[in-house]
Each structure stands twice: as structure tokens, then as C-alpha cells.
């Protein structure tokens, strides 16, 4: 194998000898280098590729937006519908407008860094979503490298953007009591109570069925979830750990018994119109509850009860925070929440740990001295 560099007018080019194929001499020429040094470096890289792979592949001229379309379609069969929608939104809205018209082999680390800087400086996305953008670019180019569409995944040369955790907003015990007292006549009272006493996610609560409740042992089983749009019940959970059993407080069980009587009455009144999905939280004709309707009711009750405004998902955080403050072991909390590891629980609720450390020190002091 040999190669040479030559000048052509004001530019340079290299010639790479590929050997003989069917008795004929084969060469690869590449022109347009501004300096002799650039042409020599490109020749060395081409020779290295030929030695490593036994063949010489031209860098792909495919536009990044065309490659992303193929990559995302391949991903679709491996991820959940909600995750696919998030990926599509980030790619269509933020990645393609900035990088989509660049040939995939010509994307530079500087181009990617410039995108991150733009997204962060103009507050176009939260830091967490900028991290997701990085993951999408990095994962897509990693696969492009395996497929030999690019020589190197240049995203691996760019630092992952940092994200700063926003402080969790949760209710204290008095706020929880005040809200529940105001919400007790709401159709969705049972949904709020389940969120606060079990730490379940909204989708898990809205997909919970009566057959998932063991009233003899006061235990419920999380086996499915409702999509964010409210039009699809998805078997399984967000993670393997999400398929879990949760022991219920007595008051929650009592509230479920009372709620079931209301559902049975509605079922009897609507008769043929009733569509029995066996859901605990449902419309008056048995169909899944729209998450938006639940949210509207939630925020209306917050105003009436005059407690601090939080999201429905923060009821889950409130549940975990109250348990940790009561000295419940983080592993138990992790199991109730369906976290894959206890580390996720500790990282998420690190704001509670300083208080727990103080209480622990006081208890040791009382015990020994």
C-alpha cells in the first residue's frame, strides 16, 4: 500500500493506492486541500482506515436529518410511545433546525457545542432536556460509527451539559390535611388520597383496577399505567421495579370501600352505557379518566384549600418526604415508589437527609447519654 500527495494549481490532493482488483490497478484520489500538510494528514487517516478495515469507505454524504429519521424509526420498536414522542419532539424542534442540514460525516464537536450553548443561553429548554438532546445526538452518532457512516462519534468529544436540580416542592403534614379536607367531596378524592398515601405515579393510579386490590391484606399491585394522553392503557410499568405491591393504610382502604359503592351505583344507573374497564378512578360511564380533567380539579382544590401550589406528581414527592422524615428506611421508600435502586431515592430526596442526620444524632445522644 502506498500513497502520494501532489499539487494541483492552488490546492493539494492525495492519491491512495488500493491495490489490484481483477488485475486492474485501483486508486483513490481526493482533492481540494488548501495546504500540503492537510493533504498529508488526510492521506495518513485514509491509509489507517484501509489497514484497519481492509477496505476504504468514503465518509457518508447523508444529511444528519435523513439519518435521524432512520435511526428514530429503528428506536421506535424498542421504546415506549411516550418516550418516542419526547424523542421526536426534541429532534424535530431543536436538533434538526441546527444540525439537520449538515452531512453526517461533517458534523464537528464545535457544531454540537454551539447547539447546547444556544439552548441554554436562550432558555429554550430546561437543563434536563438539554441533557436529553445530548443523549440523542451521542447515541445516534455512536450507531452511525458502528455502521461506518462516520469515522468517529464526535459527540463523545463534547462534554455532557450539566443540570442543576430544582428544589422539590412538597406539602407538610398540615397542608396535606387541609387539602384532603377540602377535596373529600371531589370525585377524584380517591386519586389524591392514593397519591399521598402510596406514592404512585399519576398514570399508575388512573390505570389501577379493583382486581389489583387485595382487601383482605390491604395491599394493591401496580400492574399497568395510563398514557399521558389518557387514551391508552399500557401493561407493565416504567421500570421492572415499578411492578410492585404497596401496603395501604387503613383509612385509604376505608376510602376505597366507600368509593367502590359510588362506582357500583353509577354502573347500575347507566346500565348499557357503562363500559366496565374495572377502573377505580374513571368517568361516570366507566371509561379512563382524562389526566387533564384530573389536573384541573387538582388545581381548583388547591386554590380552595389555600395550600401552596404544586404539581400532581409532587404528591408522590410529598409521600416520600413525609416517610423519610418519620425515619422510614430509604429502601422501604424506594420499594413503595418503584425506584430501580435505592440510590435514585437518596439522590432525589437528598434535601431530607440533613434533617435525618440531625435527628439521628439526637437519638444517639438520648440513647447513650
Task: Describe the protein in words.
This protein has 369 residues and is mainly alpha-helical. It has helices at residues 36-53, 64-76, 81-99, 109-121, 127-146, 173-183, 189-198, 202-206, 250-270, 291-305, 313-325, 330-337, 342-348, 353-368, and strands spanning 3-8, 11-21, 24-33, 213-214, 219-221, 224-226, 233-235, 245-247. It has three domains: 3-53; 64-157, DNA polymerase, domain 1, CATH 1.10.150.130; 173-361, Orthogonal Bundle (hpI Integrase, Chain A), CATH 1.10.443.10. The protein has 14 helices and eight strands. Strands 1-2-3 form a three-stranded antiparallel sheet, with helices on one face. It has a three-stranded antiparallel sheet with strand order 4-5-8, with no helix packed on it. A two-stranded antiparallel ribbon has the order 6-7. α3 crosses α5 (127-146), α4 (109-121) packs antiparallel against α5 and α7 (189-198) crosses α11. The mean pLDDT is 88.
Amino acid at each position: 500500500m502506498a500513497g502520494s500527495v501532489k499539487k494541483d494549481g492552488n490546492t493539494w490532493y492525495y492519491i491512495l493506492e488500493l491495490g489490484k482488483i481483477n488485475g486492474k490497478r485501483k486508486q483513490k484520489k481526493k482533492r481540494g486541500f488548501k495546504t500540503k500538510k492537510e493533504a498529508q494528514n488526510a492521506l495518513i487517516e485514509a491509509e489507517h482506515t484501509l489497514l484497519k478495515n481492509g477496505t476504504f469507505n468514503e465518509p457518508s454524504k447523508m444529511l444528519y436529518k435523513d439519518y435521524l429519521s432512520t435511526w428514530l424509526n429503528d428506536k421506535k420498536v424498542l421504546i415506549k410511545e411516550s418516550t418516542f414522542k419526547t424523542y421526536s419532539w426534541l429532534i424535530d424542534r431543536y436538533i434538526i433546525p441546527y444540525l439537520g442540514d449538515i452531512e453526517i460525516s461533517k458534523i464537528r464537536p464545535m457544531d454540537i457545542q454551539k447547539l447546547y450553548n444556544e439552548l441554554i443561553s436562550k432558555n429554550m429548554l430546561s437543563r434536563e432536556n438539554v441533557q436529553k438532546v445530548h443523549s440523542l445526538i451521542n447515541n445516534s452518532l455512536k450507531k452511525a460509527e458502528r455502521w461506518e457512516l462516520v469515522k468517529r462519534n464526535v459527540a463523545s468529544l463534547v462534554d455532557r451539559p450539566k443540570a442543576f436540580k430544582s428544589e422539590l416542592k412538597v406539602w407538610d403534614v398540615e397542608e396535606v390535611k387541609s387539602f384532603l379536607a377540602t377535596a373529600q367531596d371531589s370525585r377524584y378524592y380517591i386519586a389524591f388520597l392514593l397519591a399521598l398515601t402510596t406514592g404512585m405515579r399519576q398514570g399508575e393510579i388512573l390505570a389501577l383496577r379493583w382486581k389489583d386490590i387485595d382487601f383482605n391484606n390491604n395491599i394493591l399491585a401496580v400492574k399497568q399505567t395510563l398514557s399521558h394522553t389518557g387514551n391508552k392503557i399500557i401493561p407493565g410499568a416504567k421500570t421492572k421495579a415499578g411492578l410492585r405491591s404497596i401496603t395501604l393504610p387503613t383509612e385509604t382502604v376505608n376510602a376505597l370501600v366507600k368509593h367502590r359503592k359510588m362506582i357500583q351505583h353509577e354502573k347500575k344507573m347507566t346500565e348499557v352505557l357503562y363500559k366496565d374497564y374495572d377502573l377505580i378512578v374513571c368517568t361516570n360511564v366507566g371509561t379512563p379518566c382524562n389526566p387533564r380533567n384530573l389536573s384541573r380539579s387538582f388545581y381548583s382544590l388547591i386554590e380552595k384549600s389555600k395550600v401552596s401550589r404544586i404539581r400532581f406528581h409532587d404528591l408522590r414527592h410529598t409521600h416520600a418526604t413525609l416517610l423519610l422524615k418519620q425515619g422510614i428506611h430509604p429502601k422501604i421508600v424506594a420499594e413503595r415508589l418503584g425506584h430501580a435502586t435505592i440510590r435514585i431515592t437518596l439522590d432525589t430526596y437528598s434535601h431530607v437527609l440533613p434533617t435525618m442526620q440531625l435527628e439521628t444524632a439526637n437519638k444517639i445522644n438520648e440513647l447513650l447519654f
